[in-house]
């Protein structure tokens, strides 16, 4: 079978792949997207859809802020099933130590021009009456949003198609060669540039990537409108993303426009089993009840798990593989894939077309990984 | 304060219908500890629903009597929601959390009706056939009301007879199966004398009720509640004003708990060996989840499972012959009531398929799988967890439904927070 | 044990025989549409056995209770939407 030829072939139609497809097609490139199952499966289907500016590092901040601005620009075009809502986030401090973290966070955002508001016990209770009373305070970030990722991914992919992209569903890519991707049935698609946006499967196509799977659990309740108004996250959440201990849970609750409550979150290394682990689920729910006691009486209708693609420095891999300038990575976003998808796409397109970069790309380049030698080629 | 009730037993039976009752009784004869748990207010499953204090057949009476005399502890109103540890299940009721530790488990979770969407099926007073029967048994007055019974399966006759007995005006029994299939079923019944007699009694009771094969509902109509139904029969359309439509398309097995526990399936039913043991050690399954076969088969399978669960293999073996006979009958029934392809064209673009989330038929076209359709449209994401729309989607689109995740029934956060190591209830 | 149970449906006091489900109490006291669907359609019970969730009502301020599986108790406060 003779290979079909595209400027860019994107492997993986999760939110990152779909965003890259939309951006590349908008730039006039001839795009193919190859997806083994359907759009927005994988981590895209499992995550919370929280669009959030983060402060763990400058590089993380820059990319999340840039991406959030892009989501805000796109918001009016998103169809209703994407459920985009600017609910804002409130980071919550339960003790003196966490209050310190909160203040540092406030300063970090304020210095960089992000509108935030410190809440004391009283104003926190006014903003969220169903939080337990003796919390120390909160940091309101009104610019954060939530959306429903599977439909957002579909929207982005449809946008790509409207601009000429071709999609191939139903078969996995088994191999990336210098200028083509090979499918399971033996056929191949010729590519000027290949983008590996396969998330936790990325190492299968480009071996040696320093990506680890981090399992997460989520639960969603029946409809109880009005219990929570913002996405609520314990400021100690960061302890859980950084901790390399085997398992961690943190308080993280999101109101859905349906009135359902989405309850997270958990992180586990070295967990390959996709099944819901009752002990982790129980701990996660117990943690949530510590902040919102009323949660205990609510009915949970579904629980599920997902795997985040995590890198050692908690920054994504965006850019060409060292030594293989025509194979790009767009992966390793850990829990920020939804937020960072749009910024990732813009960065990649600019790099591919040699345009001025909207933000520096160095912190995310795959070549930064200390032992670049470990990124062996698949040839 | 959360009320947590813990139980420890040798043989735990989930489901208090014929299969569960038979299993519990047979296991208890060994002297081992047996506990029976059912999610309904009283035991009896669906076929003997509401009859615990007033059985309507001698069969129900004798099985209820056996259970009472054997003094097996019964826990009702409790639904199992998940497995929390090896050989420990978690359940909940309206008021309390339940923990069940067991050595051997017998799953007798029964079946539920299959619903297929058609325009107007969401109108109040359009219900399942078993659904309307359940409500009348629970006290809904039906005397003088006009009812059309429709769909497919042996349940239609039983429901029509019951409703008529309660004073309803059953205007029509509309069976979608072809006349040829019904006649051939009639011939089959002759080889199963007691079933033929049963069917004859039903027909005798219903001699004034018009019965039409090759007939199915195409739309229900009304303001606020149903006022009439349109049916197709062969090439003609019939319109029948009525107060209730009792419509169900045979049964689907309740395999959620077996699947959650990792039991393997065969052709969509729980795979069991000759002793009713599933692919998972110490887990047995009896009745409808192993194959829709009605009360006779459920009673036999229940007894086999109960005896086998406590090691009485000879007693179990003694029932193999009768089970084989009832299985043959069951498979003939299944074939007779297979769904005709025209039923796939019943819903129009706006007909609701997922009732929990109001997802219409047109929204569901073009997806590659149940999983994709669910994620993109919310179909199956409501509290029924796909129990109503799943079988319909399977028939309409050919999708296979996936393995369930916990909880297999909506459950309170307080319940799901329980772990075996929890010393106290509440926020553990 | 009392033969009769007293409860309220949408503020209206009623009496039913002991052993009556909340659903039957509703249906026999003039309520046909038990709940409104997410797009506002009136809905009544479908399955009768507790799996369809169409019969959900609020009982004693607890929402999403399946009325077909719950027996009426003295003093219950039952509300449909």
Major β-sheet of chain A, in short?
A: 8 strands, mixed
Helix content of chain A: 25-40%
Instruction: Return the domain count of chain B.
Output: 3
Going across the major beta sheet of chain B, what is the strand order?
4-3-2-8-21
DSSP E strands of chain A, number: 18
Tell me the Rg of chain A in angstroms: 21 Å
Number of β-strand runs of chain B: 24
Mean pLDDT of chain B: 94
Instruction: Give the termini distance of chain B in whole angstroms.
Output: 11 Å
Q: State which percent range the strand residues of chain A make up.
A: 25-35%
Radius of gyration of chain B: 22 Å
**Share of residues in strands of chain B:** 15-25%
* Major sheet size, sense and barrel closure of chain B: 5 strands, parallel
Shape of chain B: globular
Oligomer type = heterotrimer
In the CATH hierarchy, what is the architecture of the largest domain in chain B at level 2? 3-Layer(bba) Sandwich
Question: What is the CATH homology-level superfamily of the largest domain in chain B?
Answer: FAD/NAD(P)-binding domain
Short description:
The complex is a heterotrimer of chains A (379), B (428) and C (81). Chain A has 379 residues and is an alpha/beta fold.
């Amino acid at each position: 079978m003779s290979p079909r030829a595209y400027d860019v072939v994107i492997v993986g139609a999760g939110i990152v792949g779909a965003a890259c497809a939309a951006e590349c097609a908008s730039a006039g490139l001839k795009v193919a997207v190859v997806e083994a199952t359907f759009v927005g499966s994988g981590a895209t289907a499992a995550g919370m859809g929280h669009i959030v500016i983060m402060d763990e590092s400058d590089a993380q901040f820059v990319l999340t802020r840039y991406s959030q601005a892009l989501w805000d620009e796109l918001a009016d075009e998103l169809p209703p099933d994407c459920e985009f809502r600017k609910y804002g986030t409130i980071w919550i401090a339960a003790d003196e130590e966490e209050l310190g973290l909160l203040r540092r966070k406030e300063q970090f955002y304020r210095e960089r021009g992000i509108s935030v508001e410190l809440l004391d016990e009283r104003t926190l209770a006014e903003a969220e009456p169903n939080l337990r009373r003796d919390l120390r305070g909160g940091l309101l970030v009104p610019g954060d949003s939530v959306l429903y990722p599977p439909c957002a991914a579909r929207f982005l992919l449809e946008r790509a198609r409207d601009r000429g992209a071709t999609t191939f569903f139903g078969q996995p890519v088994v191999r990336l060669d210098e200028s083509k991707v090979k499918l399971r049935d033996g056929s191949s698609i010729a590519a000027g540039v290949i983008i590996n946006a396969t998330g936790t499967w990325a190492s299968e196509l480009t071996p040696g990537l320093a990506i680890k799977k981090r399992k997460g659990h989520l639960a969603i309740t029946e409809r109880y409108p009005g219990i929570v108004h913002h996405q609520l996250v314990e400021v100690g959440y960061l302890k859980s993303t950084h901790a390399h201990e085997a398992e961690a849970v943190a308080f993280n609750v999101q109101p859905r426009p349906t009135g359902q409550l989405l309850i997270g979150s958990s992180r586990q290394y070295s967990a390959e089993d996709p099944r819901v682990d009752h002990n982790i689920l129980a701990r996660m729910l117990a943690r949530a009840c510590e902040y919102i006691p009323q949660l205990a009486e609510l009915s949970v209708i579904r629980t599920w798990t997902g795997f985040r693609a995590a890198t050692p420095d908690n920054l994504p891999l965006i850019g060409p593989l060292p030594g293989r300038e025509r194979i790009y990575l767009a992966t390793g976003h850990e829990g920020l894939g939804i937020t960072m998808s749009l910024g990732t796409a813009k960065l990649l397109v600019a790099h591919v077309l040699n345009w001025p970069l909207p933000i520096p790309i160095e912190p995310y380049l795959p070549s930064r990984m200390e032992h670049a030698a470990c990124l062996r080629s698949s040839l | 304060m959360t009320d947590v009730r813990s139980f420890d037993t040798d043989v735990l039976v989930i489901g208090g219908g014929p299969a569960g009752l038979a299993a519990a009784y047979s296991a208890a004869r060994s002297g081992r500890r047996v506990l029976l748990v059912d999610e309904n207010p009283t035991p009896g499953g669906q076929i003997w629903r509401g009859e615990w204090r007033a059985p309507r057949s001698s069969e129900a009476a004798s099985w209820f009597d056996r259970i009472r005399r054997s003094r097996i502890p019964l826990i009702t109103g409790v639904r199992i929601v998940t497995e929390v540890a090896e050989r420990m299940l978690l359940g909940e009721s309206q008021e309390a959390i339940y923990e069940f530790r067991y050595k051997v488990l017998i799953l007798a979770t029964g079946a539920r009706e299959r619903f297929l969407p058609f325009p107007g099926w969401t109108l109040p007073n359009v219900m399942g056939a078993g659904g309307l029967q359940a409500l009348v048994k629970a006290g809904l007055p039906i005397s003088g009301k006009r009812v059309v019974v429709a769909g497919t399966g042996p349940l239609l006759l039983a429901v029509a007879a019951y409703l008529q007995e309660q004073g309803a005006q059953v205007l029509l029994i509309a069976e979608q199966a072809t006349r040829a299939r019904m006649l051939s079923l009639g011939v089959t019944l002759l080889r199963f004398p007691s079933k033929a007699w049963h069917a004859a009694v039903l027909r005798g009771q219903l001699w004034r009720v018009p019965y039409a094969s090759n007939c199915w509902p195409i739309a229900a109509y009304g303001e606020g509640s149903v006022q009439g139904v349109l049916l197709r029969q062969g090439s003609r359309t019939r319109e029948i004003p009525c107060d209730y439509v009792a419509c169900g398309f045979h049964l689907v097995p309740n395999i959620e708990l077996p699947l959650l526990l990792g039991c393997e399936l065969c052709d969509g039913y729980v795979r069991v060996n000759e002793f009713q043991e599933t692919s998972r050690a110490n887990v047995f399954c009896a009745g409808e989840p192993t194959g829709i076969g009605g009360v006779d088969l459920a009673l036999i399978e229940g007894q086999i499972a109960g005896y086998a669960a406590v090691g009485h293999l000879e007693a179990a073996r003694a029932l193999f012959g009768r089970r084989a006979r009832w299985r043959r009958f069951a498979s003939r029934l299944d074939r007779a009531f297979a769904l005709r392809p025209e039923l796939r064209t019943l819903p129009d673009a706006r007909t609701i398929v997922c009732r929990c989330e109001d997802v219409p038929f047109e929204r569901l076209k073009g997806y590659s799988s149940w999983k994709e359709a669910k994620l993109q449209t919310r179909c199956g994401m409501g509290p029924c967890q796909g129990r109503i729309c799943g079988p319909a989607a399977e028939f309409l689109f050919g999708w296979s439904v996936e393995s369930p995740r916990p909880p297999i029934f909506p459950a309170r956060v307080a319940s799901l927070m329980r772990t075996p190591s929890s010393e106290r209830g509440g926020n553990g | 044990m009392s033969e009769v149970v007293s409860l309220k449906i949408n503020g209206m006091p009623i009496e039913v025989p002991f052993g009556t489900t909340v659903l039957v109490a509703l249906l026999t006291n003039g309520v046909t549409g038990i709940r409104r669907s997410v797009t506002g359609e009136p809905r009544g019970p479908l399955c009768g056995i507790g799996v369809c969730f169409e019969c959900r009502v609020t009982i004693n301020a607890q929402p999403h209770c399946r009325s077909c599986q719950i027996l009426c108790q003295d003093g219950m406060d039952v509300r449909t939407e």
